[in-house]
Design goal:
The protein is an alpha/beta fold. The protein has 11 helices and 11 strands.
Length: 346
C-alpha cells in the first residue's frame, strides 16, 4: 500500500511505497458490525482539501476523515481513490478503511491559521463521514466542535443515521454560523437498496433521520442520488420516492443521475452483468460518451422530480437563502408563493 502522501511527515523519497512500521496502525475488530473489515489508522499531514477547479461541485473545500467506505455502494464514484493506495476499487474499497485519527486536531489547527479565511467546508462528499467506522472512532464530534468554535460554515451529506448522535453539536453550530445538512436517498425500493447499497441503513431509516432533524428545528434536504437508469427511474418509482421524501419533511430534493467514473464503472458493470445481464448493452449505449448519462436523460429526470417536488410541496428554497439549520419563519397565510421550487445540492 502507498501511504506517503497521507503521512503527517512525508517520506524523503516521494516514490516510497510504505511508511515506516510505526506510521500506520492496522486493526481488525472481531465484532459482527466490523467482521471482515480492516482499519488502517494514519496520522495525516492535512485534512482540508481544495476541490479541483474542473469539478462540478458547488463548494471549494472538503474534509474527509475516512477513505474507503463500508456502505459498499456498488456505484460509488470515490472507488477510484483506493487505487492511489495500490488497493483495488472493489472489495478493498468496501473493507480496507483508512482512518485519519488526527482529523479533529488537524482541522482545529487549520481553522486557527491566519491564512484561513473561513470558507465553507463540505463533508461527506467523497465517502460518508457517518459510515459504521465513525461509531468506533468518533471523529465527527471533534470536527464539528472545531467548526463551531471558529464559527466556520459547513455542510454534511450522509446516508448514515449516526448523524443524530451529534444533533446537539449541529444545533450549537447553527446558532452561530451557516450549516447545511442533506441526506442521500436515491430510491425507496427495498430490493434495489439491498443489492446496490448493502452496507447502508435502509431508505426509510434515512428518511427517519430527515424527520427527526426537522422535528428538532433543523432543516434537512435530500439528495435524490443516484437515480439509476432502468432500475430506479420508472415514473412510479420516482413518485414513490419524492412522496416519501416530502412526507419526511425535507426542505428540498435534488435529483442526481448515476454517473460511472473509472473505478466505479468497472465494479458497477460487473455487478450489472451478474444481477441484470439484459441491461448491460443498454448501459453501454447510454454511457458510451463517458461517465455521465446524456444531457437529454438528465434533464428528463430533473424535470420529473422537479414537477413531483412542486406537487408534494417540497420547497421552495431560493438562491442566496442562508444554509442555517433553523427552520425559516412561515409566511403569512395570505402570502402568495414567491416562485418555483429551486433544487439545491446541499
Amino acid at each position: 500500500m502507498r501511504w506517503d502522501h497521507l503521512a503527517e511527515r512525508p517520506t524523503a523519497a516521494r516514490d516510497a511505497a510504505l511508511f515506516d512500521a510505526d506510521a500506520v496502525t492496522t486493526r481488525t475488530f472481531d465484532t459482527p458490525e466490523f467482521r471482515g473489515i480492516t482499519f488502517h489508522e494514519v496520522r495525516a499531514r492535512s485534512i482540508v482539501n481544495r476541490v479541483p477547479g474542473a469539478s462540478r461541485m458547488p463548494f471549494e473545500w472538503t474534509v474527509n476523515p475516512y477513505r474507503g467506505c463500508t456502505h459498499a455502494c456498488v456505484y460509488c464514484f470515490a472507488r477510484r481513490t483506493h487505487s492511489y493506495l495500490d488497493l483495488d476499487t472493489g472489495l478493498d474499497f468496501d473493507s480496507q478503511i483508512v482512518v485519519k485519527v488526527n482529523a479533529p486536531e488537524l482541522l482545529r489547527s487549520h481553522l486557527g491559521s491566519r491564512r484561513w479565511q473561513g470558507e465553507h467546508i463540505a463533508m461527506g462528499t467523497n465517502v460518508d463521514c457517518y459510515q459504521r467506522a465513525e461509531g468506533r472512532y468518533r471523529l465527527m464530534p471533534g470536527i464539528i466542535s472545531a467548526l463551531r468554535d471558529h464559527a466556520n460554515p459547513f455542510s454534511i451529506l450522509t446516508k448514515g443515521t449516526l448523524i443524530l448522535r451529534d444533533l446537539d453539536l449541529l444545533r450549537q453550530s447553527a446558532a452561530i454560523t451557516d450549516v447545511g445538512v442533506s441526506v442521500s436517498v436515491g430510491f425507496t425500493d427495498p430490493e434495489l437498496w439491498r443489492t446496490v447499497e448493502p452496507g447502508t441503513p435502509a431508505p426509510e431509516r434515512r428518511l427517519d433521520v430527515v424527520r427527526t432533524l426537522v422535528e428538532h428545528g433543523i432543516g434537512c434536504g435530500v439528495l435524490m442520488a443516484p437515480v439509476i437508469p432502468f432500475l430506479g427511474d420508472d415514473p412510479a418509482q420516482l413518485r414513490a420516492t419524492v412522496r416519501a421524501i416530502a412526507a419526511a419533511g425535507a426542505t428540498s430534493v435534488t435529483p442526481l443521475v448515476l454517473h460511472l467514473r473509472p473505478g466505479a464503472r468497472e465494479w458497477f458493470m460487473a455487478w450489472l452483468e451478474q444481477r441484470h445481464p439484459y441491461l448491460v448493452r443498454r448501459y453501454q449505449r447510454l454511457y458510451a460518451d463517458g461517465a455521465y448519462a446524456p444531457k437529454w436523460y438528465q434533464r428528463r429526470i430533473t424535470r420529473q422530480v422537479h414537477e413531483l417536488a412542486q406537487e408534494y410541496g417540497i420547497g421552495p428554497t431560493r438562491p442566496g437563502m442562508p444554509r442555517r439549520l433553523r427552520a425559516p419563519e412561515p409566511p403569512p397565510p395570505s402570502a402568495a408563493p414567491s416562485g418555483p421550487t429551486q433544487l439545491s445540492l446541499l
